[in-house]
Amino acid sequence: MTVEMTSTDTLVVGAGQAGVAMSEHLGRLGVPHLVVERDRIAESWRTRRWDSLVANGPAWHDRFPGMEFDGLDPGSFVPKEQVASYFEAYAKRIDAPIRTGVEVRRVTRNTGRPGFSVETSDGMIDARRVVVATGPFQRPVIPAIAPRDPALFQIHSAAYRNSAQLPAGGVLVVGAGSSGVQIAEELLRAGRAVYLSVGPHDRPPRRYRGRDFCWWLGVLGEWEKEVAQPGREHVTIAVSGARGGYTVDFRQLAHQGMTLVGVTQSFENGVAAFAPDLADNLARGDENYLTVLDTADAYAARNGLDLPEEPEARVILPDPACVTDPVLELDLAAAGITSIVWATGYAVDFGWLDVDAFGANGKPLHQRGVSVEPGLYFIGLPWLSCRASAFIWGVWRDAQRVAEHIDTQRKYFAHHDAIQHGRETSAA
Ligand SMILES: Cc1cc2nc3c(=O)[nH]c(=O)nc-3n(C[C@H](O)[C@H](O)[C@H](O)COP(=O)(O)OP(=O)(O)OC[C@H]3O[C@@H](n4cnc5c(N)ncnc54)[C@H](O)[C@@H]3O)c2cc1C
């Protein structure tokens, strides 16, 4: 039996935005490459997000530099299907060599020669270099505290589509980052009784003084920050583009009927226990919010920007009863809760990479995406080079740097080959 073998200089695994960006930059530099994708282009945007999701950043911001969203108001928030179509159109426009429906199952380093042997669902690929673009959010994580009660419907935010998916009754949403808070609000609007478990978070203003927070983070240099503030690496950001975009305000949600609780700690005999940290978490979220306003004001003053004042943005609503008299224990059945939505984030899954490129904690060892394993690269991971790395516009720039690194390596080897070849010619 003969096994079909494809050869390429650079193999990109994954055709989400990271893989498409890689292909654009590699193509520009003339690096022969191939992108393989197990599903469809931008599959995560199509099938791993809830139905009503729109991009968190406005259309002018959450895109690649080379193409705008056709026919959309630049200030609008693009529905997830259109984000997926955008990347599909982008891949077509740059003529990206993408093979869909091909899963990479194993990557091993060649011995005695550079490069990797790549086992896929469609045969072997011999690649001099491999770029891992399989996403920042691969494996939905539900913490071990999840109750083992078959009467409760439990779902991760990655599998949540809409309120009709859940059985009748109340819902506990665990996690109040962008996913958790948006899903909780959608459920509340659908008439559900909603309990939202709120941990430490940042909640930047959606807009301030006439500019979107994406603009403020840009001019204030926040997107470019290379390391998260110590101790705040796991703080989620509660921001939403839904219904034209609004500032997430947990107190307002509570005044609308949502019950806020602190961090979910355990479930025992049908009773959920919450940490007494809700007021603290909200206070720290407010602090973050007000700091953005202060920094924005200082920036506007220093640079003489003529932006309308917005003192009303500093008004913090009074604490609702669930904050002043927090729920620390909740009998789920007695409260009518039939579902739990776990908006508790994701882990990465690199089990298919049989290479020596990971630290003791299982995280890839790399510098700005250039792995410690020569010829292996990562792209699209959170904080790969900076805060923007896992976001649409940030990954495009990181991909440019990684492609340049690959191009430079190719030049070193071209030089080496030329010397070798000269030696062989003179010896002949
Ligand atoms: C709910 C949610 C909302 C978000 N909203 C925004 C937003 O508004 N703006 C923004 O900038 N960012 C947003 N992000 C962050 C980020 O932009 C997305 O997660 C985006 O999908 C990441 O793109 P990616 O190409 O790195 O990964 P993905 O889009 O996940 O693409 C990775 C691809 O690799 C493929 N793949 C994986 N393993 C293999 C394998 N072994 N072989 C072959 N193919 C494989 C997958 O099928 C997938 O298509 C959001 C994230 C989430 C979870």
Relevant terms:
9 helices; alpha/beta; Putative flavoprotein involved in K+ transport; FAD/NAD(P)-binding domain; FAD/NAD-bd_sf; oxidoreductase; single chain; eight-stranded mixed sheet; 22% strand
What does this protein structure show overall?
With 428 residues, the protein is α/β, with parallel strands linked by helices. The protein has 2 domains: 214 residues, FAD/NAD(P)-binding domain, CATH 3.50.50.60; 201 residues, FAD/NAD(P)-binding domain (3-Layer(bba) Sandwich), CATH 3.50.50. It is built from 9 helices and 24 strands. Strands 1, 2, 3, 4, 5, 6, 21 and 24 form an 8-stranded mixed sheet that branches. The protein has a 5-stranded parallel sheet with strand order 8-19-9-10-15. The structure holds flavin-adenine dinucleotide (FAD).
CA-based shape: globular
Q: Strand-residue fraction?
A: 15-25%
Query: Could you report the average pLDDT, rounded to the nearest whole number?
Result: 95
Q: CATH H-level name of the largest domain... which superfamily?
A: FAD/NAD(P)-binding domain
| Tally of domains | 2
CATH topology assignment of the largest domain: FAD/NAD(P)-binding domain
Q: Profile the largest sheet.
A: 8 strands, mixed
| Count of separate DSSP helical elements | 9
What is the terminal separation in angstroms? 38 Å
Helix content: 25-40%
Q: Which CATH top level class of the largest domain fits?
A: Alpha Beta
Low-confidence stretches: none
Number of strands: 24
Which architecture name of the largest domain does CATH use? 3-Layer(bba) Sandwich
Q: C-alpha Rg, in Å? A: 24 Å
Structural class: alpha/beta
